[in-house]
Amino acid sequence: MTAPLVECERVGFAYASGAAGAFAIRDLSFEVKAGETFGVIGPNASGKTTLVRLLSKVVEPSSGRIRLDGADVARLSRADVARQVAVVPQDVPRGFPHTVEELVLMGRYPRAPRRFFESPEDRAAARRAMEAADVLALRETLLDRLSGGERQRVMLARALAQEPRLLVLDEPTAHLDLRYQAECAGLLRRLGREAGLTIVLVSHDLGFAAELCDRLLLMAEGAAVRVGPPESVIDEAVLESAYGCRVLVDKHPISRRPTIHLVYPTG
Amino acid sequence: MTGPASASGARLAVLLVGLGLVVALVAIGALFLGSARVPPGDVLAVLTGRVKGVDQVVVLSLRLPRILAALLAGGALAVAGAGFQALTRNPLAEPSVLGVSSGAAFGVIVAQVFGLGTGLVEAVGIAACAFAGALVAGAAVYVIASRGGGLPVHTLLLAGVIVGIFFSSAITVLISVLDFDRLGGVVHWLLGNLGPIAPASLAVFAALTAVGLWLVVGQARPLNLLALGEESAQQLGVDAERLKRRVFAGAALLTSAVVAFVGPIGFVGLIVPQVLRMLLGPDNRLVIPAAVLGGGAFLLLADTLARNVVAPAELSVGVITAFCGAPFFVYLLRSRAPQAGL
């Protein structure tokens, strides 16, 4: 039995003035075990992005508690959290005249916030991260010159440079075409299996999440609808009630994982 | 090596030594030039203590303090500008553009209304009033311009202009109502004027500048992360609120120190960081330390021009920086503002 790395205990959160693109959380409880790949799915406005912010301490719960390896996140400093939790954001900053290597080196900040320049160890860690995310060849390239898939991998490299225990990915496939989705899936599998990283994958893409994740959390309106292995969560009746539309669930011909077909309304 | 080398202690050291040489050259030039014709040999003699009299007064009591004041003010303004630019993620932000200088100037006038003159205690009092004015103006601009957690480029500039005009008008009212006779001197100061500065004032000025530099320069690394956006910076372990308060306080302190002892000189905080960014790239760990020396050299050069162009009369140094700064501002507004980035 592996100990949980993340424990969310009856977490509630509401934005003071309804910030755009982020929604409230009500009474949310779940655990993420060390080493598992955990998917968070749910319709728009279900609170997925808010959950990412809570896990990375950008915002703090108004009720309940989040524990990270047993420690209350509210009592940890931002740098403490950033040494354990790395976020790959949905949007990559634009109009930002840094090179790939400079951006990846920023991931080393929480390791030694008082240091003015990065140490040789920081540079070595950034190099390993760029290798793992397959962007080492791009290290002198300016961020604005990258394709969508490359940007995504650069942000992943920055997160890996933090040498976290928990990697949180917010919609990693949102802007990616099929080839990059396949690459992203392969990369995440490698990171989970070889590096032993715990991964929280927030995704709109139910098939992608079902394929990669050991367990899924389905959220609707800020609360948990169901938590469990993909086969129990990717269920026609459960999804229909959460999303309000008809779907057919099938099995992937190769992986035997659940796949989802949307039933398009006629006329 | 391809592209600009990434920031490191060695690169910063080379940069600072290079800029230090530039500062030394400009300072030596400024020491030998002036409306009072002191032959170069006499300047050297004064410096080695072999000549007394008028030449000694000119070189040691007029030119040397003025050179030091210019170096301090230029460095302070350039770092304040770089700090405000990093905080607002806006390359056009600058103490005078943001109205912070006007707020500080208002504080200085209020202090003078209460009769604070020269001397150590008075210098501290004037600087405190300037700092309060700068904080009020900066906070007002922030409140007016912030929209849903962001600071849109044009709203920020408009808010700065509005707050600047408000405080300038308030200054005019105070001067007109309370002390009509001193109007001439105050107008000269309002244009930015590196006049004679008393040793006590210079010491207070230096101490305040040192505190302000300490508050801002050390935060260059987290400021780089803040450029990616506040949420991203927080996820990388930056305490964004604390960082913003610290840098804002530092930049406001630097601005108010300059305004209190030299006057509200515009555009140094705009030109110097921007030119350094063009030369060095966006890394604040190079740009901000380089701005200390680069700003000093630039303002000293401008002041040496101001002293000598129309000698024996003098231009206000603020006129020279404005002549350089206004076209530069237009250029930046046209070329950079639409991207809303740095």
List the helices and strands and how they pair.
The complex is a heterodimer of chains A (267) and B (342).
Chain A lengths: L3 E10 L11 E9 L3 E5 L6 H8 L7 E6 L2 E2 L5 H7 E4 L11 H7 L13 H13 L15 H14 L4 E5 L7 H16 L4 E5 L3 H7 L2 E6 L2 E6 L1 H4 L2 H8 L3 E5 L6 E5 L5
Helix pairs in contact in A: 3-5, 4-5
Chain B lengths: L8 H24 L7 H8 L6 H35 L11 H14 L6 H26 L7 H26 L4 H8 L8 H19 L2 H7 L3 H6 L4 H22 L6 H13 L3 H25 L8 H19 L7
Helix pairs in contact in B: 1-3, 1-13, 2-3, 3-8, 3-11, 3-12, 3-13, 4-5, 4-6, 4-11, 5-6, 5-8, 5-11, 8-11, 9-13, 12-13, 13-14
Task: Give a quick rundown of the structure.
Chain A is built from nine helices and twelve strands. With 267 residues, chain A is an alpha/beta fold.
Description of the structure:
The complex is a heterodimer of chains A (267) and B (342). Chain A has 267 residues and is of the alpha/beta class. In chain A, 31% of the residues lie in helices and 25% in strands. Chain A has a domain at 94-162. In chain A, strands 6-7-8-3-9-10 form a 6-stranded mixed beta sheet, with helices on both faces. Chain A is globular. Chain A starts with a strand and ends in a 5-residue tail after the last strand. In chain B, 74% of the residues lie in helices and 0% in strands. Chain B has 14 helices and no strands. The interface between A and B is large, with 39 and 34 residues.
